[in-house]
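Long-time lurker. I teach an intro course on protein structure, and each term I like to show students one example going from raw sequence to a predicted 3D structure in token notation. This year I'd like something fresh instead of my usual example. Would anyone be willing to generate the tokens for the chain below so I can use it in lecture? Attribution to the forum is fine with me.
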Amino acid sequence: MASQRDVKQRIESVKNIRKITRAMEMVAAARLRRAEQRIAHLRPYADAIRRMTRQAADAAGTEVGNLPVLQQHDEETTVAILLVTADRGLAGAFNSQILRAGIRNARELEDEGKEIAFYASGRRGVSSLTFRGREVAGAYTGFTERPAYADARDIARDLIAAYVDNKVDRVDIVYNGYVSPLVQEVRREVLLPLQEATILEAEDDDDREEGAKHALVEYEPDPEAILEQLVPDYVEISVYRALLESSASELGARMTAMRNASENAGEVIDDLTLEMNRARQAEITQEIMEVVAGAEALV
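-- Reply from a regular --
Happy to contribute to a lecture. Here you go:
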């Protein structure tokens, strides 16, 4: 059994750790509220951009394929996968579930004979892919907790350039969608080509009926010219939304992980306190026995 002094030192160490985890939980909670506000403000705009892109693509019809960024490649031989992770850990399974989903998706595509080009935002994603021997075509770090639109523009520019230059034939994005501080769901969306993009596949019957009501729209300039300007904006806003969703998910996951760590630390402190009391009781009993033995020796 450990001595009373050793157990007391361990209790102090665990208490210090609990102070840190509680502080990290409070910081994450404060930042999470701001991240939720940014998502709430962006979602209507992002939905409007996607809706406009869909409507313009429907209006352009066969003319969509005349623009390089809108041309659907004859074969999908290379697929780009953008993994949106964090720069830091201590957030539970936040990073690992994205990496598992991305690697699993890549293996499925490789089994179909396709090549994979990985892009990753966040140091955790970049380092994990490198550790697994995967080449990273694009690495973006240093902004995951508070991403700016300029960061999304840089990522989108590289993805669009790779698609236009025929380096990749499809662009997928994998990220943690924010549902609540306790729930983050892994989402995979197709960004390019536009014909396969998730925005074109997510329409329900009500959306189609609403689109039919407003189908008579005159475009100036023509829908093809509008799409030439709109598609880069759509890719940028889609990446930016994924970064914001991931940022809020990271803070929610970290807040939950730190709360669980604090609670676990409290349980460890209770167990160590009980162990310390037993050690103290054993020491007192030993001293009493020594006193009694000494008294008997004097008799």
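Some talking points for your students: The chain has one domain: 24-256. Residues 24-256 form a domain with the Pyruvate Kinase; Chain: A, domain 1 fold (CATH 3.40.1380.10).
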